[in-house]
Amino acid sequence: GQIVYSIAEETERGASVGNIAKDLGIDAATLSARKFRMITGSSKQYFHINASTGALSVNEPIDREQLCELKSVCLLNYELVLENPLELYRMEFKVLDINDNSPSFSLSEYHINVPEFLSPGARFTLPNAQDLDEGANSVQNYTLSPDEHFHLEMQIRGDGSKYPELVLKKALDREQQATHRLVLTAKDGGNPPKSGDVPVIVTVLDTNDNAPEFEHSVYRASILENSPSGTLVVQVHATDLDEGPNGEIRYSFSNTTSADLQRMFLIHPHTGEVTVNGVLAVQRPLLEMLIEARDNGAFGMSSTAKLLVEITDVNNHGPEITITSLSSPIPEDAVPGTVIALLSILDKDPGENGKVTCQIPDNLPFQLKPSLQNYYSLVTSEVLDRELISEYNITITAADLGSPPITTQKTIWVQISDVNDNPPVFSADAFDVFVEENNPLGAFIYQVSASDPDTGENGRVSYVLRNSTVAGSALTSFLSVNLANGSIYAKRAFDFEQLRSFYFQVEAKDNGSPALSAAITVNVYISDQNDNAPTILYPTSQNGSVAVEVVPRLADEDYLVTKVVADDEDNAENAWLSYHLAHASDSTLFQLSPHTGELRTLRSMRSTDFLKHKVVVVVRDHGDPPLSSTVTVGILLADTLPQALPDFDDSGEPPPLLNATNVYLIVSLACVSFIFAAFLLFLAIVRL
C-alpha cells in the first residue's frame, strides 16, 4: 500500500519520476476507468500521472527550501485513490537537496572593536553564515583572509554546533594601525562548492579588555504553545570582570536570530529575562535563538549564548474528518466486509494530543477498520436488508487523546439499493372458486393477487397459468389470465354434467434478474343449473311407437303394471324427480306413485273393460323453473302375449279387422300366386 520516490529539488517540469502503474502492479489501461486521483495536503500539485501509461512526471519544480524551510528531511505525501474496487496507495516523495543556495551573512559588513592592550590569544565572536541547503550542501567551513595579527579558529558549543572565532595572534598597536580590514568567507560542501563572504572591520581600542561571559553556552527552556503574552521563558546571566560602564551588561537578541522569533519573544536588556510576546505561531517544536551580552564600555565587548526553547503542545486542535471516497447506494446483498467509504482523520496536534480514536454507534451493521496511517475504512459487518431499513445515517465520532479530549463528529448518509431477494407472496395457499355452468365466454372467474416487497422492476408482478390439462384438454383452452392484474376469465362455457370440478395453478413472477416466482392452486367448482330435462329410461319406445305393457285379463287390485324409471343429469334439487299421471284412458283403473313411478291397478279387472288402455306419465324435476319429460304407455289386457301387438289410438277401441297392413299383405300374396300360375302355364305351352 505504500511506495517511496526520491527526487531532487528544482527538477524541471516533465521530468520522469517513475511509472506508478508498474511500481504498484496496476494495469495502466484501467487507471481512467477506475477514476484514479491523487490527494495531497499541499497547495500545489507537483506531480502528474499519465492516465494512459501510468508514467509519473514532474508537474511543477520543487523548491525544497521554500517547501520545508529548515527541516532536515523534506517529504511530500500523496494518496492515490482507485475505485471499482476501492484501493488506496500511499506515495511518499523524498525531496533531495541540491546545492542551489550560497552561504550568506545577515549583515553587509561586520565590525569588531579590539582594545589594543589585549594579549595574543584574545578571541572575538564572528558572525555565522546561513545556508538554506541541508547536509553536505550547508556551511561546512570558514576561512579568513591572511593577516599578521589575526587568524580563524572554529569552536564547538555544548550542543555540538560550530561557530567561528577571530583569534588575536599578535599584539595590536593602534598608533601604527587603527583599523584592520578582513574578509570572512563561508563555504558549503556542495559539488561544486559555493561560498559567501562578509567584510570584517576590526577597530583597535585602547580600553575595556574583558568581554561578558554567560554562565552557560546553551540555555534550554520549555513552554506551552498557548502561553499568554508576558510568560517568562528563561533568564540568562552573564558577567564582566571590568568595572564601571565597562562592566555593565545589556542583553539583546543577536542579529543572526530571525526577525520572526524576535517578534515572538522579548528580552529585558538589564535582567536578561526572556518572555513571550504574542502568539507562538510556529510549526517547529524546537526554536533556536542567539542572545548577545554586550558591556557598556566605550567600545563594548560582547559574547553570545544559544537559547533553545521547546514548545510543548497543548490540545487545541480537534480531529478533522475527511471523506475521501463514498460508495452510496450499496446493494442489499453486499457481503460483510464490503468497503463503503474511505475516511481520512487527522489531528494537527503532535504526540498524544494528535492520536485519534474513531467509532460509530454499535447498533448499526457497519464497522470502522483502520487502513493506512490516519485512514479508516467503513465496511459492512452484517447482511443488509433493504425491506427492513432502506437507508442509514452513520455518525462517525473521532476523539483525540488529549486532556481534555476534543471530539469531532461527521454523519454519512448511506442508501441501500434493492436486489431481487423476495419472491411474490400470495395471501393464501389455495383459493376455492364457484362458477355456474353455461357461463358466457369471457366471463370473469376470479382475481388472484400477490405482493412483492422489492421495489421497481424487482417488485413488479406478472401472472401466468402453469401448463396443465383439464379433462384431457389444455388448461389454456378453458381459462386465460390477465398478465398485469391476475384476473382470470373463462374461454368456454362450463357444463356441470361433463366437468364438475378441476384445479389449476397460477404463477406470480417478478421482473427481477433472475426472476423469482411463487404459485397458488385455484380449485374451481362448477355449480349446476337446471338445464337437463329428465330422461325416461323405462319403458322405452322405438320409432315413436307406444311402449306396451301386457296385463292379465282379470288382474287383481294393486297389480303392478309397470314402473317408470327416469334419470336427470343435473344435481341436487335439479335432479329430484317426481312422477305424475297426465292422462289415462280410464282414470278409475290405474294409479301412479309420485315418488317411485310404479303404475298399479286401482281395482280388479272386469270382463267389460276395454282390452286396450293408454296412459301418459309426466316425469318432472324440482329445478327453477322445473323441466319435464313424458312417456306414453299402452296397456293390453290379455292372458297370453299376442304374436303381434296392436296399435294404440286415442280412443282406446280395438282396431278394425282389415287395416292397411293386412290389405298390403293380401294384395302381395295374390300377385305372387298369379305370377306363379302364369309361369306354369308358360312351361306347359312350351312342352306342347
UniProtKB/TrEMBL annotation:
<feature type="domain" description="Cadherin">
    <location>
        <begin position="561"/>
        <end position="648"/>
    </location>
</feature>
<dbReference type="Pfam" id="PF00028">
    <property type="entry name" value="Cadherin"/>
</dbReference>
<feature type="domain" description="Cadherin">
    <location>
        <begin position="6"/>
        <end position="105"/>
    </location>
</feature>
<dbReference type="GO" id="GO:0007156">
    <property type="term" value="P:homophilic cell adhesion via plasma membrane adhesion molecules"/>
</dbReference>
<feature type="domain" description="Cadherin">
    <location>
        <begin position="322"/>
        <end position="426"/>
    </location>
</feature>
<dbReference type="InterPro" id="IPR050174">
    <property type="entry name" value="Protocadherin/Cadherin-CA"/>
</dbReference>
<keyword id="KW-0677">Repeat</keyword>
<dbReference type="InterPro" id="IPR015919">
    <property type="entry name" value="Cadherin-like_sf"/>
</dbReference>
<comment type="function">
    <text>Potential calcium-dependent cell-adhesion protein. May be involved in the establishment and maintenance of specific neuronal connections in the brain.</text>
</comment>
<dbReference type="InterPro" id="IPR013164">
    <property type="entry name" value="Cadherin_N"/>
</dbReference>
<feature type="domain" description="Cadherin">
    <location>
        <begin position="106"/>
        <end position="214"/>
    </location>
</feature>
<keyword id="KW-0130">Cell adhesion</keyword>
<feature type="domain" description="Cadherin">
    <location>
        <begin position="427"/>
        <end position="536"/>
    </location>
</feature>
<feature type="domain" description="Cadherin">
    <location>
        <begin position="215"/>
        <end position="321"/>
    </location>
</feature>
<feature type="transmembrane region" description="Helical">
    <location>
        <begin position="663"/>
        <end position="686"/>
    </location>
</feature>
<keyword id="KW-0325">Glycoprotein</keyword>
<dbReference type="InterPro" id="IPR002126">
    <property type="entry name" value="Cadherin-like_dom"/>
</dbReference>
<keyword id="KW-0106">Calcium</keyword>
<keyword id="KW-0812">Transmembrane</keyword>
<dbReference type="GO" id="GO:0005886">
    <property type="term" value="C:plasma membrane"/>
</dbReference>
<dbReference type="InterPro" id="IPR020894">
    <property type="entry name" value="Cadherin_CS"/>
</dbReference>
<keyword id="KW-0732">Signal</keyword>
<keyword id="KW-1003">Cell membrane</keyword>
<protein>
    <submittedName>
        <fullName>PCDC1 protein</fullName>
    </submittedName>
</protein>
<dbReference type="Pfam" id="PF08266">
    <property type="entry name" value="Cadherin_2"/>
</dbReference>
<keyword id="KW-1133">Transmembrane helix</keyword>
<dbReference type="GO" id="GO:0005509">
    <property type="term" value="F:calcium ion binding"/>
</dbReference>
<keyword id="KW-0472">Membrane</keyword>
